[in-house]
From TrEMBL:
Residue intervals of the tRNA synthetases class I catalytic domain: 109-437
Keywords, in A-Z order: Aminoacyl-tRNA synthetase, ATP-binding, Cytoplasm, Ligase, Metal-binding, Nucleotide-binding, Protein biosynthesis, Signal, Zinc
Lineage: Eukaryota, Sar, Stramenopiles, Ochrophyta, Bacillariophyta
Family note: Belongs to the class-I aminoacyl-tRNA synthetase family.
Name recorded for this polypeptide: Cysteine--tRNA ligase
Native organism: Cyclotella cryptica
Main location group: cytoplasm
One of the record's GO cellular component terms: cytoplasm
Signal peptide interval: 1-25
PROSITE patterns from the UniProt entry: PROKAR_LIPOPROTEIN
Pfam family, one: tRNA-synt_1e
Length: 624
């Protein structure tokens, strides 16, 4: 792979720079006439890191979470270390990504290489995340692993939405506090990340612990003429005053924008937009304006889910925002600014978040900070069940524990996702998961065979390298692998390279087996240990990106592939995930989607339970 891409001063592109229209335009960084307008494009910092990115192997990471922290923080040993005595500027490989902002594949050019700042949209912790959600988190993981493989240092922030309409409704329904509910599902989320071998973000800030930052953000928008307070006490963003709104990541006619419409999908963006709008429309000045802060409504809101922050202004005075809670879009802008600064290198999320969520983030951040928000936007495609996007609103979702009840299933789901092209839709079917399990079984088998052969013949593993056909294949496929990962994370090509090396190793074992069966005792009966050793190292090197060779950690809801399963009998408790599948099946039957209902019954049976329908009553669930 060509490594001659040197770090250089960032050049601005027209697609990533906005023209400021705020009240502070005279001193704004977005104003092209201001000499400070390209301050963020200054000379790069010199890196002290000369670690060889090609030889770093992923190591276990810490999951210690400070109890008094405003966020979950993780020490990431994958990041390169700094030696203060070294002052050499390094060259890094160039990676091209499909940038939703420019609608083309463009090189990623960090503001302060080798550091890359990366913000990703996290979960709303009112329920377990489903496998469709985890496609996004696995996409973030592949992207980050590739950057680490190439030698970049990734400063990754992923938010936790722990207050919104859904959370409040579920707290009321279950009669528990907001913290009880959200901490429960935070823990489940982190358990699922562990199970999927996802490299942790540096920090997971909670929305509820950054209320002051959000209030300050609103006042910054007001100062720039982009936010206003209604008579009832809610705060709104004035869309008509932000030039280019709704056209940065999507191409919409601003006059035809509908409240809550999702530009391409009608998905999560539509659902969220409707929630933002339904109880907070009466006082809006413009039909397109979106809510920044929702005023307290005693008939709906909770005491433990509302705040009245006091903000110290630049002139030394203080102001109250008014009792209420933040809108969904605001938290990401405020927390990205706190942890990563006004301008970030990468922002990732699902394609359904392009509008309104990510368009709103851009409008808020550039409106408050008077600086470009993000230079590269990466969006992943959906996971589909049948021909439909998987979502909780459609009732066709499967949690990780429900869809992947064994360790082998979990690894297979990881491989299924990370070996796909992240921008395309991905169909989740039993056949697809089974194929992924078969691929992993083949990989595990050849790795075990190589390890055994090398253990027996370790002393001769470094000889006779000049005529090794395996080594020639490995060198070729490693080069192709590295070309694939820097070409918009072309993981299907990378997977093909992986299996080309596997095939070369398998061919070598078959050759020797055949020679021995034919009774030949010549040198041809000896394994090419030097080639197998190189192949073994290559698979480990590629796994820095794939992350598929690992032991799935034990989880209370996750069975080992060798477990015999729980004791049968109707007295045994039915797990929560099984009941979730039963509820989904009932909804599918009510909607007369009998194909989905049958597939869910099959899944329930596969997990060791039977469902008996009862006329005018709830189905009876029992262990088989």
């Amino acid at each position: 792979m060509k490594l001659g891409v040197a770090i250089k001063t960032v050049a601005a592109t027209a697609a990533s720079i906005s023209i400021c229209t705020c009240a502070s335009a005279a001193s704004c960084a977005l104003n092209p006439t201001n000499h400070h307008g390209v301050a963020f494009l200054g000379p790069p910092k010199k890196s002290a890191s000369t670690i060889s990115s090609w030889k770093r192997i992923l190591r276990p990471y810490s999951t210690t979470r400070p109890s008094d922290s405003k966020s979950y923080q993780f020490n990431n040993p994958l990041q390169s270390t700094t030696d203060d005595n070294e002052q050499e500027t390094i060259s890094l490989p160039e990676i091209k990504l499909y940038n939703s902002l420019t609608r083309t594949k463009t090189p990623l050019v960090p503001l302060s290489p080798p550091k890359v700042t990366m913000y990703t949209c996290g979960p709303t912790v009112y329920d377990s995340a489903h496998v469709g959600n985890f496609r996004a988190f696995l996409t973030y993981d592949v992207l980050k692993r590739v950057l680490l493989y190439l030698g970049y240092d990734v400063d990754h922030v992923c938010n936790l939405t722990d207050v919104d309409d859904k959370i409040i409704k579920r707290c009321d329904r279950e009669g528990i506090s907001l913290i009880e509910l959200t901490r429960k599902y935070e823990e489940k989320f982190f358990e699922d990340l562990e199970a999927l071998n996802i490299v942790k973000a540096n920090v997971y800030p909670r929305a509820t612990e950054h209320i002051d930052e959000m209030a300050k953000f609103i006042f910054d928008l007001e100062r720039n003429g982009l936010a206003y307070r209604s008579e009832e006490g809610s705060w709104y963003f004035s869309v008509s005053k932000k030039e280019g709104y709704g056209t940065r990541l999507v191409q919409l006619d601003p006059e035809q924008l509908k409240i809550g419409a999702s530009a391409e999908t009608g998905g999560a963006g539509a659902q969220r937009g409707a929630l933002d709008a339904d109880e907070y429309d009466s006082e809006k000045e413009g039909v397109r304006d979106f809510c920044l802060w929702k005023a307290f409504k005693p008939e709906f809101d909770r005491e433990d889910g509302t705040w009245n922050p006091v903000v110290e202004m630049e002139d030394g005075t203080t102001r109250e925002i008014g009792r209420g809670r933040p809108g969904w879009h605001l938290e990401c802008s405020a927390m990205a600014r706190k942890y990563l600064g006004n301008t970030i290198d990468l922002h990732a999320g699902g394609v359904d978040l392009k509008f309104p969520h990510h368009e709103n983030e851009i409008a808020q951040s550039e409106g408050a900070n008077c600086a470009p928000f993000c230079s590269c936007w990466v969006h992943n495609g959906f996971v589909n069940i049948g021909d439909e996007k998987m979502s909780k609103s459609k009732g066709n979702f499967l949690t990780l524990r429900g869809a992947c009840p064994t360790a082998d299933d979990v690894r297979a789901y990881r491989y299924l996702v990370v070996s796909s092209q992240y921008r395309n839709p991905l169909s989740f079917t039993e056949a697809a998961l089974s194929a992924a399990k078969g691929a992993l079984k083949r990989l595990d088998k050849v790795k075990a065979m190589m390890a055994e052969a090398l253990d027996k013949g370790e002393d001769t593993a470094d000889t006779n390298t000049s005529e090794s056909a395996i080594i020639a294949t490995v060198d070729k496929e490693l080069a192709n692998f590295e070309l694939a990962i820097v070409d918009d994370l072309s993981m299907p090509r990378a997977s093909a390279c992986l299996f080309s090396i596997v095939k070369a190793a398998e061919k070598e074992f078959k050759r020797v087996d055949k020679t021995k069966k034919d009774g030949e005792e010549s040198a041809d009966a000896a394994l090419d240990l030097a080639g197998l050793k190189r192949a073994q190292h290559a698979l480990d090197q590629m796994d820095q990106v794939f992350g598929i060779f690992y032991n799935v950690p034990a989880c209370k809801d996750l069975a080992s592939s060798n477990d015999e399963g729980p004791t049968s009998g109707e007295d045994a408790a039915v797990p929560e995930d099984i009941m979730e599948l039963v509820m989904q099946r009932s909804k599918a039957k009510e909607a007369k989607d009998f194909e989905l209902a049958d597939s869910l019954r099959a899944k329930i049976t596969e997990l060791g339970f039977s469902v008996k329908d009862v006329k005018d009553g709830d189905p009876v669930v029992s262990r088989i």
